[in-house]
Amino acid sequence: MSSTDKEWPLWEVFVRSKAGLDHKHCGSLHAPDAKMAVQMAREVYTRRQEGCSIWVVLSNQIVASDPGEKGMYFDPAEDKVYRHPTFYLLPDAINHM
Amino acid sequence: MYTQAMSVGPQDVAAKAKSAEDAAREAAFEARIDAGDFIEAKDWMPEHYRKTLVRQISQHAHSEIVGMLPEGNWISRAPTLKRKAILLAKVQDEGGHGLYLYSAAETLGTSRDQMLDALHSGKAKYSSIFNYPTLTWADIGVVGWLVDGAAIMNQVPLCRCSFAPYARAMIRVCREESFHQRQGYEALLVMMQEGTAEQKAMVQDAVNRWWWPSLMMFGPADKDSPNSEQSMRWGIKRISNDQLRQKFVDATVPQAQILGITLPDPDLKWNEERGEHDFGAIDWAEFWRVVGGDGPCNRERLATRVKAWDEGAWVREAALAHARKQMNKEQAA
Q: Which of B5, B187, B199, B209 is most buried, most CB within 10 Å of its CB?
């Protein structure tokens, strides 16, 4: 067995800090299986009531956009100022629209 | 807790023949650093930046884990149930801090096992402060006050480190760490204000032993920190060793007065002109001796870690075997 075969798989941990908010990525940890991953996430990431719900997912199951293509991917939104409400100037009387 | 100076470790050779493409990428990287951008794990980075960070973050993680030993040593002997619960929580935090940091280092492509191998084989360093023994209960208070105090001083600027996974881990660590220092100081206050003459003497003795090693935690003087300059340029390090040490001395002197103990340095005095304290010369020969492996507890600390790792091997393997078996069962069903 090589060293990596012996290493527990890596999980990404997401925590909901309180009801009504979304789960937020907070870090990762090694655990042998999903059940242990949730339990260990509680010990590592919520020792001070930081959460009321935990998600874990195997790190190698996450599909991500390519950081090298960040510009090509996200820059097109840069010049579309008309997608924001502040683009439209209205008379003061109704400016809270 | 904290890693001392990343300046302690083998120096890498930064300059190598570069292809034109690499040179362009490196220029773009430097521009991002200069603009104050954060670097994420999957972004392109120079090999030297990656290596420096793996070394620093893994040393830092090792320090957290080894740092559990001098205090864990006192959990069963803490004087009250309250102090026992506090110490347990603190030692558990240190374990958690080690885990955050190992995870941050792993994003750079070095496996957890590789890092642990480096620690266990003695190749990787950890903060040499943990090679000093905790002889009395007062030592636990002083470790919280001075050692964690120095650690916080060191760690706060790291929350702005250019490598984002490290910065995020440090924000979490710093948020949890302030309780560590406060609980230590409060434990000492109780001994100094309500304790017997013998207990007060115990506090003074612990301060005498920990003061100089705490100052050494900031690493060698700036003029002897050859790696610092590059780390500062890259935004890995924000404030120099000597500046941090001075800040720590200036912050600690009034705390010592309120506590009613004397810091063991006859040259320590306020310098009106500089607006900060002067202090005596640090025994760097002792520092290098301890870093080199010859401190009071180096062998004991490392042996304890290796033993825990080796004796836990069957648990790690059994948990993995169980997980595989369950998975196969599910797939067969």
A: B5
The Cα–Cα gap between B310 and B36 comes to 43
Helix (H) or strand (E) holding B269: strand B269-271
| ipTM for the whole predicted complex goes beyond 0.90 | no
Let me know: does A57 contact A12? Beta carbons within 8 Å. yes
One-character DSSP codes across B212-265: HHHHHTT-S-GGG-TTHHHHHHTTS--S-HHHHHHHHHHHHHHHHHHHT---S-
Partners of residue A2 in chain B, C-beta under 8 Å: none
* B113 inside 8 A of chain A by CB: yes
pLDDT band (50, 70, 90) for residue A1: very low
Cα(B266)–Cα(B191) distance, integer angstroms: 24
Tell me the CA end-to-end span of chain B in Å, nearest whole number: 48
Distances (CA, A) of B28 to A28, A48, B37, B44: 29, 40, 11, 10
Task: Name the average pLDDT for chain B.
Answer: 93
Contact B319 A32 (CB under 8 A): yes
A28 interfacial to chain B (CB closer than 8 Å):
yes
pLDDT tens digits, residue range B295-312? 999 999 999 999 999 999
Does residue B64 belong to the interface with chain A, where contact is any CB pair within 8 Å? no
> Which residues on B lie below 8 Å from A47 (Cβ)?
89, 92-93, 96, 176
Query: What residue of B is the nearest CA neighbor of A3?
Result: B113
